[in-house]
Amino acid sequence: MLINKQNIRLIFGLKLKQLRVQKGMSFAQLSKAAGVSVSYLNEIEKGKKYPKTDKIIALAQALGVSYDQLVSLKLSKKMAPITELLNSGILESLPLELFGLDPSTLLELISNAPTKINAFISTILKIARNYEMTEENFFFAALRSFQEMKDNYFEGIEEGVFNFLEEYQLDSKEVLTHDTLKILLTNKFDYRIEELPLGKDDPLSEFRSVFFKDKKLLLINPNLSDTQKCFLLGKELGFNYLKLSDRPKTSTIFEVKSFEEVLNNFRASYFSVALRLNRDLMKADLEAFFSKEAWDGDAFLELLDKYKASPEMFLSRMTNLLPKYFDLDNIFFLRFNNDSSKGKNYFSITKEIHLNKLHSPHRNDLEEHYCRRWISIKILQELKDMENGTAHPKPIIRIQRSRFGISKSEYFCFSIAKPNYPTPKSNVSVTLGIFVDNNSKKKINFLDHPDIPIAEVGETCQRCSIADCAERASPPLVIQKKERKHQINKRLRELSSRY
Asked: If you ran DSSP here, which 8-state letter would residue 371 be given?
């Protein structure tokens, strides 16, 4: 068992509560018998305080047990799930505080119904093992839940950006250049910034940067665009200005060490995007764009040029601002990769955010084929057909109103695709979907424009009931299985009525 102060307090509190309940004593009765206050007793049972020796003796006498029995770290068989949980070390890694929880709350739930909770925990662990879910999967899922819980808007980081600009006397109306960001890092934070030396077939070629904390040395992949390099520099400023010490060594986390590392990486990334895409300026630009009579893809791409932002940066920033300032909180963000080395038709979701609810287009890890009618995939197929080998070609943008057959939900989706540099043979699309309802129609003037293409879509080919779909990549196996089950039940009812 992990014997640390927190676990000792938790175990003592649980044992104290269990004995008190077994003796049929209330807080007030035990408080009086042991000579401790009710509030202090409550804090002990919750694992927040550990009493001194004289108080433990008094509590043991009041409960009719020995001192050694009360302070022993051994739990009863009934408490086996708690023993497993403490042995696993999960409580130390869970970001419970982000969700307003503490370890004692979880352990109290388990102690109240240990058999049922133990079965539930065992079930979750078995499912995780069967689908090869790792601690890394859990941490990133927890981060997404945290973002969604906060509507992906973090006032503390926004204020941090404002204070940073003010402290270093930077004009908030100007997009910070690569040179300015580099000077800030080298002069104010003592960084050394050099190019990442890459050999042939170098395993580090897929990373955008590598950072050696002890040397304050940042190595940047020379194949990146200026926009990508600026994002990395802004991210480093975020790590330093927000005083985020636990952090990954590489731009993309390939080895997760703690949730704090994952969370800090997100916070620094948020800082970088907010630093480059000024909140007030972008809010005004989006208001002007949404007031247009018709969708204007060129004008939207011009906004990216104005802020010197990548498509992912710009759409991610929109997920921060739309719920907060436009009352558009029914939205989703998806990032798709099309890796040619795994096959021309291999598409995978590498990032997703769902605000307000889990929307119909979402990740599926069952090796099913995502609906080929999704604009996210159609635009990647189009990009693949028009590739010309240009190092940093302009992104392409497409729109669509997607109607999901099963959920009956409709979304206005716009997707931007470009090569996924520096990763070879890889393209990426980012998509923002906005739920179509009366509220969004009021906020976005062109939402009902007849020129916006409308498509009936499904989730995956295996789960799609759309008949005669020319884009289908797989038979509707899940639908067929459900239909067979329906036919079997129908036949059984017929037999039942006959006899």
From this structure: P
Number of structural domains in the chain: 3
CATH number at residue 182: 1.10.10
pLDDT score of 68 more than 50:
yes
- Give dist(CA 40, CA 46) in Å, integer: 10
- Helix axis angle, 38-45 relative to 5-22, nearest 10°? 120
Whether residues 348 and 466 fall in one domain: yes
Q: Could you read off the pLDDT of 332-378 as tens digits, one per residue?
A: 999 999 887 776 678 888 899 999 887 877 887 777 888 888 999 99
**Residue 350 belongs to domain spanning:** 279-483
pTM: 0.79
Give the phi and the psi of residue 464 in degrees, each rounded to 5.
-100, 130
Residue carrying structure tokens 């043991």 = 60
Whether the CA torsion 254, 256, 261, 266 is positive or negative: it is positive
User: Which pLDDT tens digit goes with each residue over 204-240?
Assistant: 888 899 999 999 999 999 989 999 999 999 999 999 9
**471: three-class secondary structure by DSSP:** coil
pLDDT value of position 93: 62
Query: Binning pLDDT at 50, 70 and 90, where does residue 133 land?
Result: low
Pair (99, 157) in one structural domain: no
- The DSSP 8-state label assigned to residue 344 in this structure reads T
Instruction: Tell me which long-range contacts 269-272 makes (C-beta under 8 A, separation of at least 24).
Output: 269/231, 269/235, 269/238, 270/154, 270/157, 270/238, 270/320, 271/157, 271/160, 271/161, 271/234, 271/235, 271/237, 271/238, 271/241, 271/242, 272/231, 272/232, 272/233, 272/234, 272/235, 272/237, 272/238
